[in-house]
Amino acid sequence: MALSDSVTTCLSPPVHYVICKLGYEKTDTYDINNILSENGEVCWQAVTDHVCYLEPDQSVDYIKSIRLLGPVCESVNLHFKSLTKDQFVVQYALWFHWTNYTELFLEIFDVLQYSRTTEVALGLMKLTSCLERALGDVYLLVGKDCPFLLRDLLASEQLTLVFGQAVMNVLKVFIGSPCGLNLRNVLWHGFASPQEIPAKYCAMLLLLTAGLGQLLEMYLLQTECILVHRPYVIFVSLEELEVFPGNLSMLVSLLADLNHETLSIAEELVKLSSFVLKTMLPFWMAALTAFRQSRYADCVILLLPQLEVGLRLLFTTTNKCPNRMLTAEVKILPKVKYDLMLAKNLDNGEVNQLPAVLEEPAMASEFLWDFLNHQEGPRIRDRLSHGEIDLKAFPKEVANQMVAFAITLLCRFSDENMFAFKEHMVIKPLMNCASCYRSRFHPISQLKKQVLECMKSIHLWPELPTVPEEYIGTMKGLEGNAETSTSILMISEIISQLRQYMPQNSCSSDDPVNSVLTERLLTELCDMHICTLYSPRPVLEILVVLRKISTQCHQVSKQIIASTELRYKQWMNKTLRSRQRHNYLRMLNSTKLLSPMLRLILVLITLELVNIHLVSKKNPFDYQQYLKFLKSILQYTENLVTYTSPEKNKWDETMELTNKALIKIRKINDRKLMLMLLAT
Hints:
By secondary structure, the protein is mostly helical. The chain folds into 3 domains: 13-223, no CATH class; 238-436, no CATH class; 443-500 and 511-678, no CATH class. The chain is 62% helix and 1% strand. The chain has a two-stranded antiparallel sheet with strand order 1-2.
């Protein structure tokens, strides 16, 4: 794709002017002593005086402000270069404590000494992330529900109360508004190449962060408040993030081994792939170096914007809108980000052509949705860019997956003369594994996990210790066994109607309940691939209800397991009163019906799930009526949770409730509404 060679910048002309030229128009030298005292304290009045305002609304005039602040930033940059590391630590280290990451800012000081463009850009990305997190902590001193977006955070009354409006306006010039330099967004969304970010703006933000620490200290002394730092997000169940389980060790070897052969493979892929903009090549090389040096957070921070840029290149090319490769005009947020690139349709209603260009559209799109967007996924980019992750403890497992995924994209969009690389003993298994990727964090995938976990829980019931069966049969008042048998027969009838939609080897005519309502059946159904891309609203609405039903069923199972174990222990120790013994036996009797009933519900959920894509088609049923039915089943399971709780123990009511729910299920099934998603 020749376009990757021809693109020299991803900044639109107005944005390029603001970032790369505007701050250099005034060439006069600014005296650093005007804004810094001898011991390094920031004179905020001298800084805020450089912010200009428009009439009559007194909104910030970003163009004039950036022009005036340009020489100030240059002076700060030169000042920092004149300091030794020890001098900087003595004067400023204390003022970074409020960020909860002092060492990051000391590291950025080191970067500024040499002004290596890629390191400066990385430093700025990490600085803005950490600063946003720290400002959020300050916000919570006086407010609740910290805003998610940085621009909303900087515009909040809460931060204005602590720091003052003039100070907040200075920050908006650098990072808080698309009308200003907007350094955070142009870097995190991959619009700026390393050489397009002046080091002096990084130096200025370093100083401003220290200055904010000085203002915050005065505020805390006056108010006697204590700044509390929110805990970092910790990735749990890292094994769920393993997309390339059999190939990770080879991948690590590929990038971690310092010999010339292995490094050259990774580097050649980057240099020759049409997925990489040549202006962005330093970012890619720095990401590989960071991985090799076990700097996993740095690796992913550098890589994420480049994945976005590469996909944006494909998106704009395939959809024939090359102008959208650039940032939007100054007053608008960036046009094309992950959300739009992964959407089914463009904002003009036309079909997005990007998935068709990706050889395995589900693989690339589902992986990106999983790792970046789905609410129950790791949401790596959001959490990194908003400072929610401890960079010092970033998991190697996540970096492994992101690098492996990047390599597959580099290979997919490389020239034919790259065939040898694609067939390499390390690369080929990665490509094969990637092509089989299935979503792990879409609501459909999460529901599959819930259903299987619930079924595993119910399958523990027969293994629980219980009193001999003859006790239940002889206890007065437990004459409901005939009723239980009738209900189980009803379950068998429903199963018979559903057999045509189940795997052929899952049914037995001798014992349909115990041969069909099994963990094996659910596993077979859940193993079926279900497309998770572009789920319409009706599907998502149904998924919400189905997940709630599954959650309630699992809670019922856990309560029954806990009650059964406790009551049996009390029975054996002879500490149960007569009424408690009777109630215990009622519970055991109820489980004979509850077990198949809950398993039936799980099977129904899974059958609906396997065919849920049909909900968006025109089927001969009333969707709203069906949704109402599902909500009635949800109500049943919620009542079950109440009745089977240790506090209630209402087992007669549980049986009555279950019988009514079964009748409703059979009635809906008979009317073919239960099978609406199976309609063709």
